[in-house]
Amino acid sequence: MPTTAAATSGPVPATATSASVLSLAPHGAGSSGSGAITNQKQRDSYPFVGEQGQLIEVRAKRTSGVTLQPRIELLDPSGVNEVPYIVPFGPELLVERNLASTGSYTIVISASQGVGPYSVTWALDRFGQLANGGQVNAELTDPDQKDRFRFEARQSQLLTARVQRTSGVSLEPWIQLIDPSGAKESSANGYGNAQVTLESKLASSGTYTLVVGGQNTGPYLVTLSIQ
């Protein structure tokens, strides 16, 4: 039988930059569960309630053994799977999607291959916040993890965003800048370095999103300046 842990929102380190605006690490409503797949027909279900447009991140990983390659389905309120089939590869799988509907959803964990125990975690709208002149210490702890930070800006302003590894030797960060419509406006890659800087003249006004990712994992510091 699958088990589910209580909902959590994660740690929220913050740096105040003005009386009304804070810089916050990514956090969001989420939960976790675990179970064991014993045959190819087994499908373990984890329900949650979501709203149209919310970003959900679901990660399933094998916790022991060598054969299980997990599969994730995301069933909308009508029972339709919103996740296209993903070719299995390795012991861990990540799904990131914006929900198409509002209502009662179900995460279904099954096996693409093999059997064995697993864990599953999910989070809704796991966003951080960056203020002009602000900074946040955070950490990429899982493969392919992306941390997203929102901020307000105006067209033609000059943005400078910097991400630097704060300890260890493995994290090689990169940055993507997503405009208010959800399109990628610019990006920068450290290409093996411990630090990456993105400078961009903004093309739009509204709520932007700065996405931080990297090769490997580790702690980092992100800073933002808008002029």
Topology:
Layout (H helix, E strand, L loop, with lengths): L2 E2 L9 E3 L5 E16 L6 E7 L4 E8 L6 E7 L16 E7 L4 E11 L2 E14 L5 E6 L6 E7 L4 E8 L6 E7 L5 E6 L5 E7 L4 E10 L2 E9 L1
Which consecutive residue ranges, at least 5 long each, have pLDDT under 50?
A: 6-19
Give the tally of β-strands: 17
What is the level 1 CATH name of the largest domain?
Mainly Beta
What is the radius of gyration computed over CA atoms, rounded to a whole number of angstroms? 19 Å
Shape: globular
Tell me which oligomeric state these chains represent. single chain
Assigned CATH architecture of the largest domain? Sandwich
Q: How many helical elements?
A: 0
- The percentage of residues in β strands lies in over 45%
Overall pLDDT score: 91
End-to-end Cα distance: 54 Å
H/E series: EEEEEEEEEEEEEEEEE
Helix content: under 10%
Textual characterization of the structure:
- This protein is an all-beta fold.
- The chain has 2 domains: 6-15 and 22-125, Jelly Rolls (Sandwich), CATH 2.60.120; 130-226, Jelly Rolls (Sandwich), CATH 2.60.120.380.
- It is 0% helix and 59% strand.
- The protein has strands at residues 3-4, 14-16, 22-37, 44-50, 55-62, 69-75, 92-98, 103-113, 116-129, 135-140, 147-153, 158-165, 172-178, 184-189, 195-201, 206-215, 218-226.
- The strands form 3 sheets. Strands 1, 2, 3, 5, 7, 9, 11, 13, 14 and 16 form a 10-stranded mixed beta sheet that branches.
- The radius of gyration is 19 Å and the shape is globular.
- Residues 6-19 have low confidence and may be disordered.
